[in-house]
Amino acid sequence: MGAGYGALRIWSTVLIIVGVGGVIFVAIGTIFAMIAAVSFLQALAILLIGFPLAALFASWPIALDRA
Description:
Elements: H1 6-36, H2 40-58, H3 60-66
């Protein structure tokens, strides 16, 4: 790549940091939500439905970086 792509490398790094941070915060939030769940079925729904969707949305900046 030429010298004109320096700004894109900076934004790529920023998007990776935001994406990784988002996924980490989603994992921590899922753990807290499961602890606060009233029943076992609610905790299971948070783990099997909520976490994958939240992780998908949190990882979008990583996908934008790779585009």
